[in-house]
Design brief:
The protein has 429 residues and is α/β, with parallel strands linked by helices. The chain folds into three domains: 151 residues, Rossmann fold, CATH 3.40.50; 206 residues, Rossmann fold (3-Layer(aba) Sandwich); 32 residues, no CATH class. 45% of the residues lie in helices and 17% in strands. It is built from 18 helices and 14 strands. The strands form three sheets. A six-stranded parallel beta sheet has the order 1-11-10-9-12-13, sandwiched between helices. It has a five-stranded parallel beta sheet with strand order 6-5-4-7-8, with helices on both faces. Helix 3 packs antiparallel against helix 8 and helix 10 packs across helix 11. It comes from Ventrimonas faecis. Its EC number is 1.1.1.23.
Length: 429
């Protein structure tokens, strides 16, 4: 891995480089995606089945697009019992963590005759997109469905691309069944997002769409935003390790590669105050790459967006971490909890040498759907809050309103909204 001395110029160059991966920069695909979205909105199932045949090679119809109980039972027989047991342990941790995020309605009654409050209501329906193809990502299924189920969403509709045989990956399907999906449909890509946003004869319209996907899925979510809510427009995965001379270089190198293997646009950055550590991590990473199965992807990822930055001080290192606002941030320093208090921008923070990023991906409990591409400066991890909405509650008695009615009338008249003022005034004529 390349080693760069950290200064104002190198930091600016790296930030600019990382922003090139923003999905909003892929405007060349927007026209194609919009055509698919508009076509599904206009022709519904007919367009949906055509695109599935074209892109996935599967023959779909209204009779087989929805996964049946028989298919779930068949999938269950194909999943390794050991993996099933691990998934159940992971589910327990994820559910317990998200239960702590639940919000409740509240009401504040005062002696002057006023009641103010907030009513919390779960969304009635949510669509969850799960990538398909050769790979299966049951962890993403759990992370997207369980918070919705904890929030109290009644209808959780999952969509995922089928194989050419018209079937869903059995591990993906069982993860959805265990997590609480109420319906599963065999459709992927931009056409799946459009079907969830507008509804077709076979697939119901939902209130919100969540879940990861390729650039076509990301741009489709962007295209339908406003017709439905979405979680985010996710960019490539990224990790930043903040380390001092006490860090184990072999551990750090392994953790950097855990994200670099996702795809060629993934980012892996070490920011350290130790040149000795930097050199050792670079050597360890290069050695690891030669023996890992995704060697070609790792090499390209590290070539494009892999950096080891050597800072003059921990303050400079922390400032850089906050500027990058990484999806995953590992703190491997002598006093990680102290450093953590100075971190303002990060999707998930992992502290100490035994809290590596995959722990969060699969098992610990906090959500692994995290803000990317610097959006941790203003976005949060997916959670129960994403599946609820809030309504304000206001009650005033006549006596309470009478005490303030002239104030409200004068405020409204100052804005030249006389009908507003009149709405108050008529009650005390």
């Amino acid at each position: 891995m390349r080693i760069i001395k950290l200064n104002e110029q190198s930091r600016a160059n790296i930030l600019a480089d990382l922003l090139k991966r923003d999905p909003n920069n892929y405007s060349a695909y927007e026209g194609t995606v919009q055509e698919i979205v508009d076509d599904v909105r206009a022709r519904g199932d007919e367009a949906l089945f055509e695109y599935t045949k074209k892109f996935d090679g599967a023959e779909l119809s209204a009779d087989n697009i929805r996964v049946t109980q028989a298919e779930i039972q068949e999938a269950l027989s194909q999943v390794d019992p050991g993996l099933l047991a691990v998934m159940k342990k992971s589910m327990k941790n994820i559910r317990e963590y998200h239960e702590k995020q639940k919000q409740y309605s509240w009401f504040d009654s005062k002696p002057n005759g006023t009641i103010l409050g907030q009513k919390v209501t779960a969304l009635s329906s949510v669509g969850v997109y799960v990538p398909g193809g050769k790979a299966a990502y049951p962890s993403s299924v759990l992370m997207n469905i369980i918070p919705a189920e904890v929030a109290g969403v009644e209808k959780i509709v999952m969509v995922t691309p089928p194989g050419k045989d018209g079937k869903v990956n059995p591990v993906t399907l069982i993860a959805a069944h265990l997590a609480g999906a109420t319906e599963v449909y065999k459709v992927g890509g931009a056409q799946a997002i459009a079907s969830l946003a507008f509804g077709t004869k076979s697939i119901p319209r939902v209130n919100k769409i969540v879940g990861p996907g390729n650039i076509f899925v990301a741009l489709a979510k962007k295209a339908v935003y406003g017709h439905v809510s979405i979680d985010s427009i996710a960019g490539p995965s990224e990790i930043l390790v903040l380390a001092d001379e006490t860090a184990n270089p072999r551990y750090v190198a392994a953790d950097l590669l855990s994200q670099a293997e996702h795809d060629e646009l993934a980012s892996a950055i070490l920011v350290t105050t130790s040149m000795e550590l930097a050199e050792k991590v670079s050597a360890e990473a290069d050695a690891f790459v030669q023996n890992l199965s995704r060697k070609a992807i790792l090499e390209k990822s590290l070539e494009n967006y892999g950096y080891i930055l050597v800072a003059d001080s921990m303050e400079d290192a922390i400032e850089t971490a906050n500027a990058i606002a990484s999806e995953h941030l590992e703190i491997v320093t002598k006093n990680p909890f102290e450093v953590m208090t100075k971190i303002q921008n990060a999707g998930a923070i992992f502290m100490g040498e035994y809290s590596s990023e995959p722990l969060g991906d699969y098992f610990a409990g906090p959500n692994h759907v995290l803000p990317t591409n610097g959006t941790a400066k203003f976005f949060s991890p997916l959670g129960v809050d994403d599946f609820i909405k809030k309504s304000s509650i206001i009650y005033y008695s006549r006596e309470a309103l009478e005490a303030v009615h002239t104030d409200i009338e004068s405020f409204a008249e100052a804005e030249h909204l006389t009908a507003h003022a009149n709405s108050i005034r008529v009650r005390f004529e």
